[in-house]
Amino acid sequence: MRPAHHPEVGEFTLTGVMAALSDPIRVGVVRVLADGRERGWGDLLAPVAKSTLSHHLRVLRDAGLTRTRQEGTRCFVTLRRQELQVRFPGLLEAVLAAAEDEDVGHQVGVKDAVPPT
Amino acid sequence: MRPAHHPEVGEFTLTGVMAALSDPIRVGVVRVLADGRERGWGDLLAPVAKSTLSHHLRVLRDAGLTRTRQEGTRCFVTLRRQELQVRFPGLLEAVLAAAEDEDVGHQVGVKDAVPPT
DNA sequence: TTCGATGTTCGTGAAACATCGAACAAGCTA
DNA sequence: TAGCTTGTTCGATGTTTCACGAACATCGAA
To answer: Which nt has its C1' nearest the CA of B20?
Structure first.
């Protein structure tokens, strides 16, 4: 596993981001990451094969939406929220709000969900 | 030419809109329409065959981004800006701003450009 | 070193998409 | 009516995307 390429903020493209967010699974992943917490790859729950999830995470990464960090044999993902805000002000917020409203990507979850009160 | 279907505001989907805006030509069309003026189909200038442009306009229409009005044998297109704002607050503004910034869809123009001073 | 866990990559289909030119439909105009 | 204009639709083509399982690479643990 070579160390995955991440585009610089200046390399983000609008159409790239739009394309990345045109799939419900990927929107779901973004929603899961929206609280700013880093998540383990394996903690993501999506109704697709792991190779498919890997593909989706790659698309998100290539578009600049997420950052993947490697630690030993495990991976951790975060949303590049700050950088996106700089490059595309307001875009992510608008998308997240709409996604909540429509419940897009509800099929994506995370292990260790809401810790009980 | 049957009278083209337009989705209701409630039928818009986030992923549909994102997909529609993931193509530079279509973003270009949206930009051209962003001033709120209605434009004639034939006044749109894009570096693609007319059948291709027709396809793109259909995608935009189906996603709810534009409205097409027919008058005799000619068509006029407008951006459904108000309705988009209601359904996806802030989204279109953010996209338009980013598109300007990046000059996405610059290859799309309109006849009868800026009227000289 | 051997095994298990974790992701990525590969090979492969099926489906969707962008594109074109040709054919078509419908309405003006001569 | 004949012809022109304006878009849409059709069929073909090549590309991209999504999906899967299998194989692989890497690391940590036994």
So the answer is: C17
